[in-house]
Design goal:
It is a single chain. The protein is an alpha/beta fold. The chain has a single domain, classed as Rossmann fold, CATH 3.40.50.2300. The chain is built from six helices and five strands; from the N terminus they run H-E-H-E-H-E-H-E-H-E-H. It has a five-stranded parallel sheet with strand order 2-1-3-4-5, sandwiched between helices. Strand 3, helix 4 and strand 4 form a beta-alpha-beta unit. Helix 3 packs parallel to helix 4.
């Protein structure tokens, strides 16, 4: 299936405090066959400021790191899902922490998928898989057993 025909450009927001992880994410997106537009923020407070200033034009999907300074990803997820202007934003957890209890909490709090941080080639595959699933399923939240993408 040609994703580019169904969704001309995916607007992606990445919240991650690690500069190298943001760079790898950007480079991995550029390896995919469908067009994307990436905006990045480096902490949870900047993320929430950005979202609240752009409630009329939210991204198609947010990739959210859990371990960030100033406001962590779990706090941001709770704020996003409890705010009527932001609650429909699809959130993909993007983290080095892949523990079932953390994944369960993120799923219960409204995250769509959980993508573990991997090496660059694995990141390309996982991003392709995640974005394909999201577009194909019209950004609907999956069942819990399909939540963690490897």
């Amino acid at each position: 299936m040609d994703i580019s025909l169904q969704h001309p450009v995916l607007n992606i927001l990445l919240a991650d405090d690690d500069k190298d992880d943001r760079l790898f994410f950007d480079l991995a997106l550029k390896e995919l066959e469908f067009p994307t537009n990436l905006v990045t923020v480096e902490d949870g407070e900047k993320l929430m400021d950005y979202l609240l200033k752009n409630t009329e034009k939210l991204p198609d999907v947010l990739f959210l790191d859990l371990n960030m300074p100033r406001k962590n990803g779990s706090e941001c997820l709770s704020e996003i899902k409890s705010n009527p202007k932001l609650s429909r934003l699809p959130v993909v957890i993007y983290s080095t922490s892949v523990h079932d209890d953390i994944a369960d909490m993120c799923y219960k709090n409204g995250a769509h998928y959980y993508v573990p941080k991997r090496d660059f080639n694995e990141l390309i595959k996982i991003l392709h898989h995640a974005l394909t699933l999201m577009v194909k399923n019209k950004f609907a939240k999956p069942a819990r057993e399909r939540f963690i993408l490897n």
